[in-house]
Amino acid sequence: MKASAAQQRLLLDLAELDAEVAKTAHSRKNLPEDAELAELATQLETAREDVSSSRSAVDDLKTVYDKVDKELTGMTEHAARDKAAIEAGSVGHKAIGELQHELDTLIRRQEALEGEMLELMEQQEATAVEADRSEAALLTLTEKELEAAGRRDASAAKVDERVADLNERRAALALTIDSELVSIYEGLRSRGQVGAGLVQARRCGACRMELDPRSLSRIAAADEDEVLRCEECGAVMVRTAHSGLPGQGKPRE
Ligand SMILES: [Zn+2]
User: What is the CA radius of gyration of the chain?
Assistant: First the structure.
């Protein structure tokens, strides 16, 4: 087929826009904010585990504390009963001796439990501090995630806008090109290939294949409006003054 050299050159602009669309779409899938969010998600998971384990440590200590507290109350009541019985003098001498012995044991146990409770309270305090700290860390990370998600959405919207703009320009450009040329180009593109390439430095600009001297001579001899296809990839081979074809001499700017 035939198409003016100018029309053929427009295919290069189209290919450039398509490459830009592809590049921009790729950057949409690889936003730096997405990497940041993935990192934050990992940190958040750890922070949630920290909160959960520090909360259960608080709960466990509370259970132990309540148990000791209950035992201490029982012990105190028991000691009070023994004391009252001794003071009332309503039991015999031998029984008093036994009660006194029991009371002493109870008091020693009471003191031990009180010590244990003090220790538990200290542990509770430390655990509560740890729980507060991990909850604060979780909150900070949650806020960071929210902020990063906002930035990601803004970046994504910006990229989407750019893709839409490029597609619009591309559509407008395609309308100015010979429909038969465009259909060759689109046919290749739909197969994942590059539709057109500039012949330069003895290579097809689409597939980068080096052209043999025979092909180069054929290209150089062809009329300017002859649409040439790469034997390797099928792309439209666009020639310009920069193609460096045999007999072309130095490019005119
Ligand atoms: Zn090629």
Answer: 43
